[in-house]
């Protein structure tokens, strides 16, 4: 098997295992992430549907145009987050999604993640936030001790096109430590680069900026190793014009990684 096929197989193994563990006929509302690994999750959902193992009225919440297509192609019902019926109005939780299965670009040892390689992280974070459980699926190249050490393209940051150059300059002046607002940053560096580099994400052959499903641009911000994901997420989020940051701190409950030898690692 070619190395590309081995990686695809690893993604598929992780996706199938996560779906089999978390999706059965008791799941009423399911969030569907974006990216190439989630394609395999949709493949497994179609099999389970054909075997009659899904809830007959299952609602699936998409995180992108691609994700909606996957849901529809699997013969499942797509419903936007805010169009979900309130099934349990008396619940103390606002979360309306039982479980969301999504991919990731890098996941650290505490299940903090970098997401947004496909530019869908705004809706992915909205859906994750409304989920009782976020389960990540990936091949083992994404399994990392410290964020920023494996995914070297930088943190995807969705920004308003109205001020992307200003936001880029501001991101490139982020300081790794004490001058920042957060108390946590005062005592230890949150990331390693003294001068972060922010690149406007371009379409192939520099055919212009990538435009997200929401009509915004993406800046990929290389900050080196991310020692304090929550502080970095907060620091970037505070910049006016930043719509969403592709750091998901403390959101995932579980991550499944497929290895090249066919084995799987599940981290909780
Ligand atoms: C899209 C994402 C994807 O989930 C992430 O990029 C992983 O993609 P893939 O499964 O293709 O590696 O966050 O915004």
Automatic annotation (TrEMBL):
Chain coiled-coil ranges: none
Keywords for the protein's UniProt record, in alphabetical order: Isomerase
Catalytic activity field: aldehydo-D-ribose 5-phosphate = D-ribulose 5-phosphate
InterPro entries in UniProt: NagB/RpiA_transferase-like (IPR037171), Ribose5P_isomerase_typA_subgr (IPR020672), Ribose5P_isomerase_type_A (IPR004788)
Example of a GO cellular component annotation carried by this entry: cytoplasm
EC number: 5.3.1.6
Keyword flag Cell division: no
One BP annotation, GO: D-ribose metabolic process
SUPFAM superfamilies documented for this protein: D-ribose-5-phosphate isomerase (RpiA), lid domain (SSF75445), NagB/RpiA/CoA transferase-like (SSF100950)
Annotated metabolic or biological route of this protein: Carbohydrate degradation; pentose phosphate pathway; D-ribose 5-phosphate from D-ribulose 5-phosphate (non-oxidative stage): step 1/1
CDD domains: RPI_A
GO MF assignments: ribose-5-phosphate isomerase activity
Gene3D superfamilies in UniProt: 3.30.70.260, 3.40.50.1360
Family: Belongs to the ribose 5-phosphate isomerase family.
PANTHER family (UniProt xref): RIBOSE-5-PHOSPHATE ISOMERASE (PTHR11934)
Identification of the protein by name: Ribose-5-phosphate isomerase
